[in-house]
Fold each of these.
Amino acid sequence: MLLLVASCGSARVAGSAKPATISPVTSAASVTAPTSAAQPTSGAKTPATAVERWVTQILQEQYTEACLSSAPAMPAGQDAESLCKRSEASASAKSLREAWAKPGVELPPGGKVEVATVTAKGDKVTVPDTAVKLDGRTLRSLELIGATGDTGSFSLSFKVEKHAGSWYVTGFDLNA
């Protein structure tokens, strides 16, 4: 079964003997806007567009860009560049890519990432992996390829938040 350590935002892993919540380290300094060539992209107009962009970046192995794309929605006191350079952030992103990039599935730019319509009530929404498709297959179906045992309770969902009028993927929840 898939196990993720940390993400570019926060990850919550549940369903194990010892459920854990893994969050990024908070620094005492104020938020430092990234200044390198890997500037965060502007936010998305919809939650679905934010998830589509983020998943596409992960699939294209643009892990730092995906991480930095959440920077505008990070809480005060977190340094996006430092967080995104941590090995845990890239390890989680690589684990997600491995879970989705399966033989016979075309990855972007040829393969298309599509997200079902997401209805947000307020400034936060959760998007399940069943609402996201890659090359016509849901992320959930791709995640379960090769899985054994009872997979009925397995799920992955993306946490998406609106900040300053735009939407950003801020983390994900994994229930195994």
Amino acid sequence: MSAGNEYLEGKPPKKKSPASRRGRPRDERVQHVIEIVDWEWDYMFGIDTGRFNNGPYMDYRHLNIEGTILRPTSIKASAGEVTLFPDHRLSDIEGRRKHEPKAVGAISHRGKDYQANLHLPADAFGLVLQMMIAGRYRYVLIEAHKSFRGEALIRHFRFSGTIDEDDLA
């Protein structure tokens, strides 16, 4: 008698364990709300001699935001860092039509550490920076998939000067 032939031999099938009956995990979304406390923007430009260069030049123009985590309350971290990465590929409207994105960033949290990395079109980066300089943005709101082992993919994000009760629900 070989395994897997229960139906052919007229025997009832073996019961499956609860773990094997589980289907795909639900696509649960979680709102992350970070109140901006401080931020910094450093700029570096030079010749790219790196192994993975995309041309003769390289630049570093990331925006680092420190903030208080208001939501979700289920994570241990009370403060965290959000880093914005300008991406020139996202500025190309025609090129974006060919993309099949799974996320626009990622969140990682372990204990009291919290880090969110956000990718935005490079042509929007200057506008975000201007609003930060003017003090118009006070919050970063992120919709992400539910965390699995302290990691979550980001579906979308926005900057805002105000939030309401719905944002904190």
